[in-house]
Structures are given as C-alpha cells and as structure tokens.
Amino acid sequence: MEKTFLMVKPDGVQRNLVGKIVSRFESKGYKLAGAKLMTISKETAEQHYGEHKEKPFFGELVDFITSGPVFAMVWEGENVINTARNLMGKTNPSEAAPGTIRGDYGLTVGKNVIHGSDSTESAEREINLFFNKEDLISYEKQDSEWIY
Ligand code: RTP
Ligand code: MG
Q1: What is the ipTM of this complex?
Q2: Which of the residues 35, 75, 95, 132 has the least number of beta carbons within 10 Å of its own beta carbon?
Q3: Which ligand sits nearest to residue 116's alpha carbon?
Q4: Which ligand has the minimum distance to the alpha carbon of residue 5?
Q5: Residue 37 lies in domain
C-alpha cells in the first residue's frame, strides 16, 4: 500500500493544531503507520529540503523547521501521496482553498503548518530519513478492500 510522509511544522505544533491535522487524515480514511514528536537537526533539515539548497529561502526554511518540535507521521492508503497534497492545499496559504489545511490554518508561505511528500521517490526518501523500519506498524483493521 502507498505510503507518504507528512509533518506538522513547528508553527502547527506551537498553535496546538496537531490533533486537528491528524483528524483530517483519519476522517478521510487513511491509516496511520507511524508518528512521533521530534526536533530536527540542522543536518536532517538540510537533507530533507535538499532540493531547495540553491533557493534564496533555504536558510530561513532550515532555521524555521529546526526552531521547535515537529510532529512527523507516515500515512498509508491508495493514492495517499497526491490526495494528502490536495488536502493540504497550495504551498502559499493565501492561495490555498478554504477547506484545505493550509487554507484554513496557514498564515504565510514560510509558516504553512504542514509538509507532505510530493512524489513516490520523495515519500520513500523522507520516510527513511525520519523513521526506522521498526517504528512503522503494519496492521489490519477489517477484512475490507476499502477500509485502509
Ligand atoms: P513542503 O515541501 O514543505 O511540503 O511544501 P511544498 O512542497 O508545498 O513547497 P516547496 O516548493 O517544496 O517548498 C518547501 C517550503 O519552502 C517554503 N517556501 N518559502 N519564501 C518563499 O518564497 C518560499 N517558497 C517556499 C514553504 O514553507 C514551503 O512549504
Ligand atoms: Mg515540497
């Protein structure tokens, strides 16, 4: 089953949005495979956002993501990578539609509450960067094809 890496960013943790954000993905019907509250080292942050190394906002991005605890998660379900991105909304909260996480809770492009993997390759890379294999739980809920 497809897996994605999602992370409530430091602004979301500081603003007590962890429960609300987890609830969106639970309500949608996806399955939680792993989660932890953690602080990110500068090295891990630079690796995680490596694709943005040359961007002018890279330093600010790394400083922000390491500024306080984040809530890292792995979610599972059919097409979860793309669907989670749709539930998150556009990168800039001022362009994100109401009803999306960033549309409802995000303030600025820098403080946009949540991260989500954008491809199967980045999902695999990010899951491996943040979680050990034994931290991810595989479990059955019900004998049904459509309950993940
Ligand atoms: P993320 O990686 O955090 O899930 O966000 P994303 O895919 O929607 O956006 P991406 O292009 O990967 O950018 C990563 C994060 O960098 C910050 N950003 N700042 N100042 C700026 O112009 C700017 N552009 C991007 C955002 O916090 C974005 O989430
Ligand atoms: Mg991204």
Answers
A1: 0.95
A2: 132
A3: 1
A4: 1
A5: 3-135
How does DSSP assign 43-62, residue by residue? HHHHHHTGGGTTSTTHHHHH
pTM score of the predicted model: 0.94
pLDDT digits (tens, 9 = 90+) for 34-85: 999 999 999 999 999 999 999 999 999 999 999 999 999 999 999 999 999 9
Distance (Å) from CA 115 to ligand 1 centroid: 8
* Residue 144 maps to a domain: no
Q: Which residue stretches of the chain are H helix?
A: 10-14, 18-28, 42-48, 58-65, 80-88, 101-105, 120-130
User: Which CATH number goes with the domain that contains 99?
Assistant: 3.30.70.141
Answer whether residue 147 is part of any domain: no
Among protein residues, the one whose CA lies closest to atom 24 of ligand 1: 109
Catalytic site residue from 6, 73, 115, 148: 115
